Amino acid sequence: MTDLYQLQRAMRRMRKQAMDRGVVAILDVGSAKIACLVLRFDGPDRLRETEGIGALAGQSSFRVIGAATTRSRGVRFGEIDAMQETERAIRTAVQAAQKMAKVRVDHVIACFAGAGPRSYGLDGAVDLVDSTVTEGDVARALAACDLPDFGEGREVLHAQPVNFALDHRSGLIDPRGQIGNRLSVDMHLLTVENRAIQNLIYCIKRCDLELAGVASSAYVAGISSLVEDEQELGSACIDMGGGATGLSIFIKKHMIYADNVRLGGDHVTSDISKCLQIPMATAERIKTFNGGLVATGMDDREMIEIGGETGDYEHDRRTVSRAEVIGIMRPRVEEILEDVRARLDAAGFEHLPSQQIVLTGGGSQIPGLDSLASRILGQQVRLGRPLRVQGLPQSATGPAFSGAVGLCLFAAHPQDEWWDFDISAERYPARSLRRAVKWFKENW
């Protein structure tokens, strides 16, 4: 826990140094593609710190000056599976983005989708030494949160204060400078498997780059795809990627829950490939150009030529109706949406005021997905695209780039997290000291 706290603080310092130099790279490591955007921070307010423990603490203006994507290799279920292949793919994307930007990049901020995320809601409270809340009081309140025993081999990825209460007044965004006697805080904690983070750090170091920040794809996709009212009133963002489907719930402009389903668009492609006995590349083409989820009377008569290069004339001239393709795709998409529904129910999503659901990511572009999702999820559903960012190429404005654009916003407008406050070594959150004492008693 102490090591992670120091690592995150070091990455935050690196991010500020990179922004001070004016250039930082954004790296979205996905199962289907690896996207790299190069950002240039400019203007006199580049590092202007604003008061507030909110979604816009430390605002900065930026512009995208380089962008590149490449087919992902060595990544399965949103996690690095083959180090050398992933390294080559990252190098390809970063070098192409640097060439477009005409600048060398040393620091990257990365996001990934897998690693089995788990959410926890924590709370802590302290009595104020002085009647006015100071930065140190906020740090003490965060340190008073008692972390659950989330098990070996897991690390904290996000630890964000989402609500403050001063005496009997709740719903405070930033309590600093206000007067009271007792300060309480609610914190959202997201843990992931440690090996996934370590693999990502090691892979990026092998590419001669420094990691200046890491985030969950589900979180950053929500930042870019949900409009302000949706983030305020309580909405869910479903980021349908190639190897995994991320899920995040926001309320009061803070993420309060995140999870993922280890199924995505690549599994739909795989189903088409197996059923029609065709290569994955051909199955991907059929899914993209002829796929759908809602069959009509016309689809029985619309024939799709499969094509092929086996040399067998009869085999290469096969045709399949669009209705058959829909029949292959629909059960897998239904399975993904039903898994998402189960996770929303477990999170208590039905108790939120708005209950809007936004579908984004490359897998959300299948025709008919919104109507099928509204039937299974039973809520208001819309298809989401990322916010427009200055300098972003037209080719990178689709739903598939929600994670990359959200990571740009995460880099420029970071929400304060637990490691942004100076917490004395003996007061780290969680039962770090208690667990150490318990281990000592059991082993000596």
From TrEMBL:
SUPFAM superfamilies per UniProt: Actin-like ATPase domain
Domain SHS2 span(s) in chain numbering: 24-225
Main location group: membrane
SMART domains: FtsA
Record keyword Membrane present: yes
UniProt cross-references to Pfam families, sorted A to Z: FtsA, SHS2_FTSA
Topology in membrane: Peripheral membrane protein
Subcellular location as annotated: Cell membrane
Record-linked InterPro entries: ATPase_NBD, Cell_div_FtsA, FtsA/MreB, SHS2_FtsA
Top-level taxon of the source organism: Bacteria
Keywords: Cell cycle, Cell division, Cell membrane, Membrane
GO biological process terms on file: cell division
Keyword Membrane: yes
Main function: Cell division protein that is involved in the assembly of the Z ring. May serve as a membrane anchor for the Z ring.
Subunit comment: Self-interacts. Interacts with FtsZ.
Similarity-based family: Belongs to the FtsA/MreB family.
Protein name: Cell division protein FtsA
Organism name: Rhodovulum iodosum
